[in-house]
Amino acid sequence: MTTTLPPRISEQSLDQLFRQARTQNGWTSETVPDSLLREIYDLAKMGSTSANASPARFVFLTTPEAKERLRPSLAPMNVEKAMTAPVVVLVAHDLEFYEKLPKLLPHADMRSYFVGNDDLIEETAFRNSSLQGAYLILAARALGLDAGAMSGFNAGAVDAEFFPDGKTKVNFIVTLGHGDETKVFPRNPRLDFEEATTVL
Question: Are 153 and 74 in contact (CB under 8 A)?
Fold first, then answer.
């Protein structure tokens, strides 16, 4: 039986997703419509997660008022680039994600596997929401936006402001929009294949 592999995506697409894509530190004034946020999510949700658990929850801050709620939680170096971004995304994880497993994985009783197992819940939620946040960045790039992921914030303060019920925890933050190329730093080196990998 011969299996035909799908074709590689174009070199231009690889540049857009990886080689030429940059973490953005400044933004143009061009807005991002809500319809595009829906498109981004509808792509990102298709990325793989363990047991199809899909624990990520995304809060899109699109108004000045919403972004001001975030300001006190940000490290000083991140304030301007977050406040001026058209969209700031709180990538969070739902610690009760397993309640949706009967819908997401109907052929197996995975819910009972998680109930009461707090360590497994936290590990699974954090790991897979990290994956889903990365899928979100790639989806945004694929649809023509720039993105900037950031960690410099007080997670406890973000959770208190946006997730006060304690069932959802922020993982990291992503800014979205059209980047201002004049504010991009020179690209830093990456580790070579021989430095970062082992082939067994």
Answer: yes
Q: What is the bridge-based pairing of β-strands 87-94 and 56-61?
A: antiparallel
Q: Across the strands, what pairs with 168?
A: 94
Domain of 144, CATH number, reads 3.40.109.10
Q: Which residues contact 22 (CB under 8 A, 6 or more apart)?
A: 146, 179, 184, 187
Give 46's Cβ-side CA count (13 Å radius).
Answer: 7
pLDDT tens per residue, range 35-69: 999 999 999 999 999 999 999 999 999 999 999 99
How far apart CA 34 and CA 42 sit, in angstroms, is 12
Enclosing domain of residue 107 = 27-182
Rounded Cα–Cα distance for residues 98 and 113 (Å): 9
105-160 pLDDT per residue, tens:
999 999 999 999 999 999 999 999 999 999 999 999 999 999 999 999 999 999 99
* Residue 189: inside a domain: no
Structure tokens at 192: 């070579």
CA atoms within 13 A on the CB side of 11: 0
